[in-house]
Amino acid sequence: MFDKDLMYTFRTWIHYKYTDDITFSLSPFAYFSNYKIIQKQADEYEPPSHEIRFSLAATLKRALVEKINIFNRTAVEYRLFENNRDIMRLRTRLGLSYDFPKNVRMSIFNELFVNIANAGKAHFFDHNRTGLNLECKLFSAFRIDTGYMYIIRLPLFSATKIQENALFLNLTYESKRIRTVKKHSLQKL
Questions:
Q1: Is 184 inside any structural domain?
Q2: 178 within some domain
Q3: Which residues contact 142 (CB under 8 A, 6 or more apart)?
Q4: Structural domain count of the chain
């Protein structure tokens, strides 16, 4: 499980917190290096494919009881592959989170991915992820996310769904918040 690479990525996000329960997000640039899913021995030696991605997302969060939240994150992604193929994909993640003391949060989720343009009707379903995530804020600007995902995937050039077990580790750096200041003008009477 630990000796094969699946993906490396660098992604930038800009978040706008509209209310405590609603956040809009824009990823103006993401770079992915995707390794082939190993289904036969020759797949182990395939070089990674590369992808550039742009995304728009909205997250809705609602407290059920103290420290337990339900959330939904829906995003649309434009994926541009190195072979000049592009696909538009919709993804939606529904989950529950529990806030522990000291900046630790655990969540369980299910996320469905569907291709909405340029993949063909046979590949409308892209994949489904069911996972468990542990998030820990290490310092004011650094966060680590780690967890497990069970994935059912329909590769683009296959008619057979495959199953995966994946461990993930995300390191996040958050820059300082930009706050808007409302300007008030005084008018002479």
A1: no
A2: no
A3: 171, 172, 173, 174
A4: 1
Task: Give me the CATH number covering residue 148.
Answer: 2.40.160
User: 50 lies in which domain range?
Assistant: 7-173
Q: What is the C-alpha to C-alpha distance for residues 16 and 59, in angstroms, rounded to an integer?
A: 10
pLDDT tens-place string over residues 151-171: 999 887 778 898 988 888 888
165: CB partners within 8 A, 6+ apart: 1, 148, 149, 150, 151
**Whole-structure pTM value:** 0.82
Rounded distance between C-alpha atoms, residue 166 and residue 110, angstroms: 14
Q: Is 54 helix (H, G, I), strand (E, B) or coil?
A: strand
Q: For the segment 29-71, what is each residue's pLDDT rounded down to a tens digit? A: 999 898 877 777 777 777 888 989 999 999 999 999 999 999 9
Residue 85 lies in a domain: yes
